[in-house]
Amino acid sequence: MQDDAPLFVISRAAELAGMHPQTLRQYDRLGLVSPRRTAGRGRRYSLRDVATLREVQRLSQDEGVNLAGIKRILELEAQVERLARQVDYLRSFVEPSRRVFTADPRGDVVATRRVPRTPRPQQAPRAIAAAGAVVLWRPTRD
Q1: Is the Cβ–Cβ distance between 46 and 5 less than 8 Å?
Q2: Which pLDDT value is given to residue 118?
Q3: pTM above 0.70, yes or no
Q4: According to the CATH classification, is domain 10-89 in 1.10.1660.10?
């Protein structure tokens, strides 16, 4: 079962999180948690959403953090998670200095292909144009 699968109606999610359903509605309006919506606009919460609700409750009650602070904490944690995934991705290559990296439409760094040990510059522009990417290239000095 996936953590992001929309499983729970608001009453069940509120019960699992130990909150009142109206509190979940308020947190949705504030952007602290964003459940998926059904065709009829009903909220469906995932296991990840319930865990986030529990964390919001912990930060609020145990740590005394206000809702604006909690929202910022959640945003920063999500950013750290995204950056950690990107670092792991970039570190997964044996010889990162021998890779060609591009930026996808969202601006994320993407490794596209390995550069041969003796790159032939005349072939690089065709490959890059075919990929539809912009690449910064610095020839290696031998």
Answers
A1: yes
A2: 46
A3: no
A4: yes
